[in-house]
Amino acid sequence: MMQTVQLAIADGMYAAALREALCRSCAWHVESVGRPDPSQPCVMVLDQAALERLPLPLANPERIVLITHRDAQLMAEAWEAGIVSVVSEQEPISTVLLAIMAAGLRVDKTHGFSQPSGISPITGTAHAPIPPEHRIPASKRCKN
After folding, report:
1. Tens of pLDDT, residues 54-96
2. Sheet hosting strand 64-68, strand order edge to edge
3. Where are the domains of the chain?
4. Which of 13, 64, 76, 97 could serve as a FRET partner for 22 with CA atoms 20 to 30 Å apart?
5. Do 58 and 83 form a contact (C-beta atoms < 8 A)?
6. Residue 83 phi/psi, 5° resolution?
7. What does the buried/exposed string (b/e) look like for 41-60 if buried means 16 or more CB atoms within 10 Å of the residue's CB?
8. What is the architecture, at CATH level 2, of domain 3-111?
9. d(CA 109, CA 105)
10. Torsion 85-91-96-97 (CA) sign
């Protein structure tokens, strides 16, 4: 299943670079939006202006990736709002992609869209019983 990312970033060049990186590296459906829709079960990548347009309190703030300047006040406000992924716009795109992937995992967990993976155990599966080992009797002390 392809996950959706809503990009609400005013800087057109940055948004285009991020869109290209997402489409190239992952199976993401990327939507560029002027105003993000928090009712959609998706990752939202926002700049400060887009964040300010969202109603408070934020619905599922763990799925938001905030792209911002290194502004301590804004970072504190984001933390208070429950946003856990705040990335500076000076960071490499690969760092932003990691934040988006992490937010995508949190969206799956929150909305129950988790898909079985080859490396994660699947709950509710039956495990094959392990046959009892042949016990070797404990060695006894030899009396010499």
Report:
1. 988 988 999 999 999 888 888 888 889 999 999 988 999 999 9
2. 28-32, 3-8, 43-46, 64-68, 85-88
3. 3-111
4. 76
5. yes
6. -75, 125
7. ebbbbbbbebbeebeeebeb
8. 3-Layer(aba) Sandwich (3.40)
9. 6
10. negative
The length of the chain is: 144
Which residue do the tokens 């408070």 mark? 56
Q: Check: CB of residue 56 under 8 Å from CB of residue 33.
A: no
How many other C-beta atoms are found inside a 10 Å radius of the C-beta of residue 27? 9
Question: Which two structure tokens, joined as six digits, stand for 131?
Answer: 């046959």
Phi, psi for 45 (deg, rounded to 5): -105, 115
Q: How confident is the model at residue 137 (pLDDT cuts 50, 70, 90)?
A: low
Closest CA to 29 of 48, 13, 53, 5: 5
Q: Is the dihedral of CA 87, 89, 91, 97 positive or negative?
A: positive
pLDDT at 20 (0 to 100): 92
CA–CA distance, 138 with 18 (Å, rounded to integer): 63
